[in-house]
């Protein structure tokens, strides 16, 4: 009867039962994620319109992306999503230690992602591809390639900020899971933390082809 | 306990599928498919997003109201993107900039 006692303790008085409480928590997270879709949507709109206006400048800018590191980071994020989902699964079946371990791996993969991103940012910094007075680019339309790099840094930067927040959330969940705050009746914090983490993964799933992979399209043919 | 516990095998299968699709999208980018390659890239990104949402975010077990909110969000994003694009795509001045 331990589980039901815990459940009674965790159930807020304005919910009928644990199921309703959990559905409400997930629903609230999804409302937030929809606002996030629109938040990133503005940047995707800017990207789409400027790419439409200056296709050649974007293509040339994209040639200076490191596809290997970009693909590596995509794989890292997909792996972190798997470990996150396994953490949620473990908390649902009261596997406290495994939950902590999977959350730890998720956080470490998040750190790995940001480390690779830092290497890429450094490469762009050294190559003077950071927009601003020091921007230098050998191309047919450097002025508009600068817009590509502005969007690159804005979009990946905003995504990286979400990763930092996500790692903080996972750390918080890990500490609470270690202390035994979650169980098979009460696990919504882990579940909605997972929703956030997967959403950030989805954003990268779109950023990767749009920023990195356009360079090898239309090679020779132009737009 | 209303949500069923998804098997580890299902999760790892989705994970493998996502990694394969990443490999495919990188490979396709190196092939010269012309204007068609952006279509392939976007279709693969869509499939990957749907896989993550349905299986990892467990939208397939979400209540109907959550599904409606998600669909509404995507719909609004499409309005933002496509309606803006119709303006730029249908005016000659946009090409003269």
Task: Walk me through the structure.
With 223 residues, chain A is mainly α. Helices cover 77% and strands 0% of the residues of chain A. Chain A has one domain: Up-down Bundle (Four Helix Bundle (Hemerythrin (Met), subunit A)). Chain A contains seven helices and no strands. Chain B folds into two domains: 1-61; 63-97. Helices cover 72% and strands 0% of the residues of chain B. Chain B has helices at 8-30, 36-56, 64-89. In chain B, helix 1 (8-30) packs antiparallel against helix 2. Chains A and B meet through helix 2, helix 4 and helix 7 of A and helix 1, helix 2 and helix 3 of B.
Task: Describe this protein with a few key phrases.
A: 223 residues, mainly alpha, Four Helix Bundle (Hemerythrin (Met), subunit A), B: 97 residues, 2 domains, 0% strand, flat
Task: Write a short abstract of this structure.
The complex is a heterodimer of chains A (223) and B (97). Helices cover 77% and strands 0% of the residues of chain A.
Helix and strand element order of chain A:
HHHHHHH
- Give me the strand/helix succession of chain B: HHH
The largest sheet of chain B is: none
Report the sheet-strand fraction of chain A: under 5%
Give the structural class of chain A: mainly alpha
Tally of alpha and pi helices of chain B: 3
Helices, strands, pairings?
The complex is a heterodimer of chains A (223) and B (97).
Chain A: H1 2-10, H2 18-53, H3 55-62, H4 67-92, H5 96-126, H6 142-178, H7 188-212
Chain B: H1 8-30, H2 36-56, H3 64-89
Helix pairs in contact in B: 1-2
